[in-house]
């Protein structure tokens, strides 16, 4: 009888968890959006998501896991290539693209990005290595919306592509494995990364981590890296959101409800610092994301 009750309880718990209470559908004015399929309680975990592609902040390459972006503890282990992996599982997961990376001299590419303060080309580089290793499809980001690119930005991207392509060519990679690596592919990837990448800031899990995060914030490097996701990229913006995204230990994103949400209500996150005034939010959203916000706060110029 006890075993039967336990099995029933386990089955009920599994049924209760079920699929995420969300659906993707078209909105009236903002393209795709994510909607609740049932009432959601404040604080409820809606779903989690693993990144399609991620990369540590360039200044923290040896301080966070090269795969999952988990911060390095005192006994962290570095790989033979000098980068830190938090576990054997992460090292194994990264083996494909990391093996490709280790065959290439990246000094010129890294110097170029470092001198210009660029971060997204590192993600394009990693995705290219993932495609070469067979860990990803060349078109895996095509479903995401691209950013609008200015002429100056396109010229910069063309220069970055030529450097990336020549770096692979000098390393002796055969043309048949880099056929996908064209100027159009590179620009297509960067256009999607620029508007869909999330800045990963881990929640402190200890007092020591909290002090480390505070120190990083002072030095303007509180982010451990950047990542692009599938489903989280479908969430639209609101300056007074009902949902937020958090990262607890690594780059796995967790979407949680900020308040009670009704069935059918659109789930929205805030793309920027919601504490800024109306004019600042308006300018950042227009320049960085290419749209004007018509949420309740913006309509009231709050």
Automatic annotation (TrEMBL):
PROSITE patterns: SET (PS50280). GO terms for cellular component: nucleus. It comes from the Eukaryota. It comes from Paspalum notatum var. saurae. Residues 20-272 form the SET domain. The lineage of its organism: Eukaryota, Viridiplantae, Streptophyta, Embryophyta, Tracheophyta. Coiled coil: none annotated. Pfam families: SET. InterPro entries: H3K4_H4K5_MeTrfase (IPR050869), SET_dom (IPR001214), SET_dom_sf (IPR046341). PANTHER family: HISTONE-LYSINE N-METHYLTRANSFERASE ATXR4, HISTONE-LYSINE N-METHYLTRANSFERASE SMYD. This is SET domain-containing protein.
């Amino acid at each position: 009888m006890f075993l039967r009750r336990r099995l029933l309880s386990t089955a009920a718990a599994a049924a209760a968890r079920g699929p995420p209470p969300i659906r993707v559908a078209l909105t009236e004015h903002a393209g795709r959006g994510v909607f609740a399929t049932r009432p959601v309680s404040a604080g409820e975990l809606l779903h989690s998501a693993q990144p399609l592609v991620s990369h540590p902040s360039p200044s923290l390459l040896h301080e966070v896991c090269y795969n999952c972006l988990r911060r390095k503890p005192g006994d962290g282990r570095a790989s033979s290539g000098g980068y830190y992996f938090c576990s054997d599982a992460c090292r194994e997961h990264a083996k494909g693209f990391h093996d490709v990376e280790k065959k290439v001299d990246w000094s010129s590419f890294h110097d170029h990005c470092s001198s210009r303060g660029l971060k997204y080309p590192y993600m394009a580089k990693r995705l290219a290595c993932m495609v070469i290793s067979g860990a990803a499809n060349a078109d895996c980001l095509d479903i995401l919306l691209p950013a609008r690119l200015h002429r100056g930005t396109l010229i910069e991207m063309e220069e970055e592509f030529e450097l990336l392509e020549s770096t692979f060519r000098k390393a002796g990679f055969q043309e048949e494995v880099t056929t996908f690596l064209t100027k159009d592919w590179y620009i297509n990837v960067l256009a999607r990364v620029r508007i869909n990448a999330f800045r990963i800031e881990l929640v402190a899990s200890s007092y020591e981590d909290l002090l480390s995060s505070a120190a990083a914030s002072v030095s303007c490097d509180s982010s451990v890296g950047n990542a692009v996701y599938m489903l989280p990229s479908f969430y639209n913006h609101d300056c007074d959101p009902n949902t937020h995204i958090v990262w607890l230990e690594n780059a796995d994103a967790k979407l949680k409800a900020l308040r009670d949400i009704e069935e059918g209500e659109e789930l929205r996150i805030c793309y920027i610092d919601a504490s800024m005034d109306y004019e600042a939010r308006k300018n950042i959203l227009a320049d960085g994301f290419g749209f004007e916000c018509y949420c309740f706060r913006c309509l009231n110029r709050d």
